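As noted in the main text, all predictions were made from sequence alone. Below is one such record, for Sec-independent protein translocase protein TatB.
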Amino acid sequence: MIDFGFDKLALIGAVALIVIGPEKLPRVARTVGHLLGKAQRYVADVKAEVNRSIELEELKKMKGQFEDAARDVEQSVTSEVNQATAALENAWADAEPAPFTGGLHDAVPVYKHPRKKWRVKRSAMPLWYKQRTGIRAKAQSGAARVARFRPPRSGSSA
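Prediction:
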């Protein structure tokens, strides 16, 4: 980069004062300052754009690497699952059922339909247990329950 020292800047300022003149020098200096500012902003924008494009390329590379790694993991998991499934199927096919010896523990349990004995079980409960647990012993209609728990009328002549 160009190295401007104080002596070089003073020389440039003196030449500009002689060539441009003292009346136009402030306006020219202001214009030069604006142009230098625009140039610096433009250079900064270009640098930022280059940095963004480099970062984007790096992110694309990283994305590709992660996708490759994910595919490798997926393939390895799939192959392991397939191997385990094949081993299990081979073990299942190779296994022979044990011969039936007629013993009590060797017998295969047979499904037995559950009998619907809940009515018998309810009626077999003692009355004191039903009263303690809140099981109704007698069915009562809704109107009869309302009449039973209605408070008595006071002041009625019967």
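Helices lie at 6-20, 25-94, 118-123, 127-133, 142-149. The chain has a mean pLDDT of 82. These features were considered when defining construct boundaries for the mutagenesis experiments described in Section 2.9.
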